Amino acid sequence: MAFSACKKQTEEPETANPNPDEVVNVLKDNSGFDTVFNVVKGLSSATFAPPSIQIADFSVETNNNFNIVYYTEAPSQQSVLANYFRFSKNLTTQAVIPLPPYADNLQTLSPAQIANDGLGLGLQQFKPYSNYFTYVVSRSSASINFKNSIEFKGDISCPISTFNPIGVADMGYYYPVSNIGGTQNVDNAFGYFTLGTPNASYLTKVCNSYSIVFLNKSGYRIIRSLIEPRQLAQGASMVFTIRPDSVVASEFNYTTSVLSTVTRLKLESVPLSGSFQTLRHYSADGKIMGIMLKDETLNKYWTFSYNFTTKVLAKGLENATLEYSADGTDLDLDEFGNIYYSGYAANGSNKAGVSIYKKAIDAQTTRIGADDFLKFGTIIQLKVLMGKVYFALNGKKTGFEKYQLSVLKQK
Known about the structure:
By secondary structure, the chain is an all-beta fold. It is about 0% helix and about 45% strand.
């Protein structure tokens, strides 16, 4: 098996399965992981580009319901045809869970609409620990560049109509929050958030879209502002502004438009320029949030954690490197700032195998599960849910035009 642990390549199993629709066992013995979801799809291509099966997102609820949205891609002569699928089951009873009445059937993600209306997908995401799925499309207009206007759709939706915004967009809808990145090489940052609660009786339209602009008078570039509207209908939301010198936790009162600092945390060794990625993660009860900052040029990481009850902002990793990782590493963090990620097996010496590692906030690196535990597939998304590592992988079955998607869970 020619397998790359970190590069996103489609791999085939070692031996052909005589039944083309039968699921391939992706795990070696004593792997330390269990399979929680499998699907096999027959796919073809009208070009030299291969088809594939991909993950949009998945989540686990506190009642142990597992929710997933995945899609297939089949290249045609004109475009890539995508078909979306949504599925839920309980991991305790294995019973299939019917989608709630408000759930979007994803018809707005149809290939025809994407091709004809020029709608581009920028984000597809479950609210963590929920079955609310949201995605982003670009809104087309004859008079403007449609990429500068976006709309959040799905179970919760809202149009964002401002054109040519400066800074980084952030979309939130009560706990937890969904965010999308934008232009980063500017000194200002802006955010959009909404106030409103999902209504289980119908497909929810989020109300009261609100825009704020954070003027930067610090002399340091704003890398990202994350909006956390946890205090729903109480007149205030939390804002976390990341700069090379510090992270500032502030309260924004949208009634008075006042932004007041709650606490700040000094950062060390963050470059003044460059390309950065941010990621956040919530505890299951929503009381603690972990935030990660990555310098994409140097592959360095900083993490920190905020407790909404005590209002304490704590430091995690600082200027850290993820050992045994490479381009294409999939990762997530927990609410305390520990990072979990895929990397080369055997502590980096086996580049044909994959292992899952944890970089703890004390800078120690340990392995999750067995070393070199996969015998089929390429990891395409990794998440930490309810204190366990989950990850999705895909692959092509040998001898057939059949493609498999699987999701696995740490034991």
